[in-house]
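step: validate -> pass
step: tokenize input -> pass
step: predict -> running
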Amino acid sequence: MKRPLDDSAIRAEAIRRAQRKYWQRGCQVGDTVVHPSDPRTFIVEEIGGGVAVVRLSSPSEDGGKPVRRRFPIGELYNPQVARDEEFGVVAERVFKLKP
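step: predict -> pass
step: emit ->
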């Protein structure tokens, strides 16, 4: 049985909600995003065919080398929205509110 305030479950739910909100809002060039498989933040450079080409927001994170990756847009999320959603998930679990 999961504990009501299990950190990994809270984080997973917050990320899922943030991904849904980002998908609904729409991906735009210049957005700051995160992918669940990589904790670093990225900036969206190009969008096409449901895929976003992103670059590291801070090249110094990878030794100054330019890093570009491709991610499906549906898997990206805004890190600030995920943090906000985490508070919401905790509140729902503590106060037994419905989403």
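step: describe -> The longest strand covers residues 38-48.
step: cleanup -> pass
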